[in-house]
Amino acid sequence: MTQIFAHRGSAGTHPENTMMSFHEALRSGAEGIELDVQLSKDGQVVIIHDESVDRTTNGKGYVKDLNFDEIKAFNASHKFTKQYGKTSIPTLEEFFLWFKYTALICNIELKNGVYPYPGLEEKVIGLIRKFNLQERIILSSFNHYSIVHCFQLAPEIEIAPIYSNGLFMPWIYARSIRGKAIHPSIKVISDSMIIESMKAGIAVRPYTVNSEAHMKRLIDIKCSAFFTDFPEKAVRSRKIS
Ligand code: G3P
Ligand code: CA
User: Fold this and answer.
1) Full-prediction pTM beyond 0.90?
2) Which residues line the pocket of ligand 1, CB cutoff 6 A?
3) Which enzyme class (predicted)?
4) Within 13 Å and on the Cβ side, how many CA atoms surround 219?
5) DSSP states of 91-132 as a string?
6) Is the N or the C terminus of the chain less surrounded, counting Cβ atoms within 10 Å?
7) Percent of the chain having pLDDT more than 70?
């Protein structure tokens, strides 16, 4: 069965990367949650997609330049089109305190392509181990050095490279860096590549799959999983396929 991962929680219907969107992901019947992490100035692992808080909150500035107390004060539902109550940017620890009681899987994307965030890998792995969640976590990044570093630190945790440019035989590349999966953009992966990769034992989880046509296509070929901003729609689509 194709697994469904709620992208940034359920970013299509709820403020992205907030506890509201994670609760919605669970309610939707998705198997997994995808979220993005960065480090605050004082070294807290916070869940946010952009390097700055400007787009998703009523605050201003770069995550790397703000202490967690300042970040916590911003409203992360402020810019969302539909009005929700106030909610703040969660820490990874806050997320785990809830997540550990669910049966969900979680893909943590390390957002260290623009700023390196020294120590991010160690902190994320430390938290995963603290909550004993190794078997329910996949670590991914566009920064493939970072996931190789994760593998060196914690070979028991699955890693997966994310990419948005064409890769020739991506399953061979994935294996060469000890990945068990690839996370390609839906724009650069063909059905035959998905099938070949899965045959080679490398799972394929394309992002971000929001159209019904793409969802059906992936479900029909039994693609391992996909990321979507609309998990409820994806679960419905899978039921009728
Ligand atoms: O991990 C897949 C996807 O989340 C990568 O793109 O920009 O939504 O983080 P982005
Ligand atoms: Ca992401």
Assistant:
1) yes
2) 7, 34, 36, 49, 109, 140, 162, 183, 207-208, 227
3) hydrolase
4) 19
5) BHHHHHHHHTTS--EEEEEE--SSS--TTHHHHHHHHHHHTT
6) N
7) 99
